[in-house]
Design goal:
With 361 residues, the chain is an alpha+beta fold. Helix content is 16%, strand content 37%. The chain is built from 4 helices and 19 strands. A hairpin with a 2-residue loop joins strand 3 (67-76) and strand 4.
C-alpha cells in the first residue's frame, strides 16, 4: 500500500471514529485528523496495520495489507496445514510440492512434507508423520473462532488425531488438539505464532498415550527448493552458532534457514523458527536437514544421539507417555524475513518472543 491510499483510508477512519467520540467538538476533530494526516504523509511506503480474516469453504485466509500471508487449510493429505507461507515483498517461503503436484524446479520427494504442519511419527505405534494406508490422520473438526485487529489476525481450530482402522476395527481417536495461528509483524518481517495443546481424546481413557522415540516430527516446515543448504547455496544457523549440517540433532532456542526463495530471486530471504520457554520439550532436538526439511522434535532422542555421536541406545530411551488428564502445550514463532540472520539478530528476536504470554495456558 502506498502512502496516499493509506492516507485516504486512515483519514476516513479517523473522521468517523472521532465524530462518534467527540460529537460536535469539530476543532478537536480537525486537529486530531490533521495529526493523523501528518503522520501518514511521512509513513514509509509499504506501511500497513491492516489485518483481515477471510473464511473460505476449505480454509481460513489470513491477510495483511490486502495480500495473503498464509491460509489455514483444513485438509491437505492427511492433516491440516498452513500454505502458502508468504513473506516480505509477497515472497513465497515454502515448497509448493505436493500442493502443486506438477510444480517446476523442485524435488518431488517426501509428499508428506506439506508447507507448515504439526504431526509425529509414532503415537501408540501409529505413524502420523508419513501418509498412506495404515497411517494416522489429523482431522480438522471445527474453527472455534477467528479474530482481527489493527495489529494481527488469527484463527483458532480443533483437530482429532485418529489412528487408522485395522481389519474390522474402526479408526480410533487418540488425541484432541487445539491450535491458534496468529499473523502479525511489519512490511519487513512477518510473524506467524503457532500454539498447540494436546490431550487424550477418549474422556474415559485410563491408559497413557505413548509418543515413541523417533526422529520423525514434529513442528515442521519444508523450505523452498532454491533455499536448500546442500546444493542451492542456502544456509542454516542456530542460536549456538552452528551452521548447516552441524545444526542437525542439536538443541537450540532458534534456527534460521536462509537463501534464495526462488531461483530468480535477487536477494536472500530467511525463515526462522523460535521456541517459547513455556513450550513442552523446548530443549529437544532439531530435525533440520540441508535438503530442506526444517523441524523441531520435542520427544525423540535415540536417533539424534545415535546419529550425532555414533553410539547405540535402547529403543525405549526417549519418547513420552501422556497420562490421562494431562495436557501438553507447544508454542513456536515463525519469522519470515529478508536476508539471513546473524546471532545478534536471532537472539534479539528470541528475547522479544520470550516476553509474550501464551494464549492457551
Amino acid at each position: 500500500m502506498s502512502s496516499l491510499p493509506a492516507l485516504i483510508l486512515f483519514r476516513s477512519l479517523s473522521l468517523n471514529g472521532f465524530r462518534l467520540a467527540v460529537g460536535p467538538n469539530w476543532a478537536g476533530l480537525r486537529m486530531t485528523t490533521w495529526f493523523v494526516v501528518a503522520v501518514l504523509v511521512f509513513a514509509p511506503v509499504g506501511f500497513s496495520q491492516v489485518f483481515e480474516v477471510i473464511k473460505q469453504s476449505d480454509r481460513v485466509d489470513l491477510v495483511q495489507d490486502g495480500k495473503l500471508a498464509t491460509s489455514y487449510v483444513f485438509k491437505s493429505g492427511s492433516k491440516p496445514i498452513l500454505w502458502p507461507l508468504m513473506g516480505p515483498d509477497d515472497t513465497r517461503m515454502s515448497r509448493e510440492y505436493p500442493m502443486v503436484a506438477d510444480s517446476p524446479n523442485e524435488e518431488h520427494d517426501h509428499p508428506h512434507h506439506r508447507s507448515l504442519w504439526m504431526t509425529y511419527g509414532e503415537v501408540n505405534d501409529f505413524d502420523f508423520w508419513a501418509e498412506g494406508k495404515g497411517k494416522g490422520e489429523v482431522i480438522h473438526t471445527e474453527v472455534v473462532e477467528t479474530s482481527q485487529s489493527a495489529t494481527s489476525a488469527s484463527v483458532r481450530a480443533k483437530h482429532v488425531w485418529q489412528a487408522a482402522a485395522i481389519g474390522n476395527a474402526p479408526a480410533v481417536p487418540l488425541l484432541e488438539e487445539e491450535c491458534i495461528y496468529t499473523i502479525s509483524g511489519t512490511a519487513d518481517e512477518r510473524y506467524i505464532d503457532c500454539e498447540y495443546t494436546l490431550k487424550h481424546a477418549p474422556k474415559s481413557a485410563k491408559a497413557p498415550i505413548h509418543f515413541g522415540d523417533t526422529k520423525e516430527g514434529m513442528f515442521a516446515i519444508r523450505v523452498p527448493e532454491s533455499m536448500r543448504a546442500d546444493k542451492a547455496g542456502g544456509q542454516i544457523l542456530n542460536s549456538s552458532g552452528l551452521r548447516n549440517a552441524d545444526t542437525w540433532a542439536q538443541p537450540a532456542d532458534w534456527v534460521d534457514y536462509s537463501g534464495k526463495a526462488s531461483p530468480d530471486a535477487a536477494n536472500d530471504s530467511g525463515i526462522a523458527i523460535l521456541i517459547h520457554p513455556s513450550s513442552f520439550g523446548r530443549t529437544g532436538y532439531w530435525h533440520v536437514r540441508t535438503y530442506g526439511l526444517f523441524a523441531h522434535n520435542p520427544f525423540g532422542s535415540k536417533h539424534f544421539i545415535e546419529g550425532r555421536y555414533k553410539t547405540s541406545l535402547p529403543n525405549t530411551f526417549g519418547g513420552l507417555s501422556l497420562e490421562p488428564g494431562r495436557t501438553i502445550h507447544f508454542f513456536y514463532r515463525v519469522v519470515l524475513h529478508r536476508g539471513a540472520w546473524n546471532i545478534e539478530q536471532g537472539n534479539k528476536r528470541f528475547v522479544q518472543f520470550c516476553s509474550i504470554e501464551p494464549l492457551m495456558k
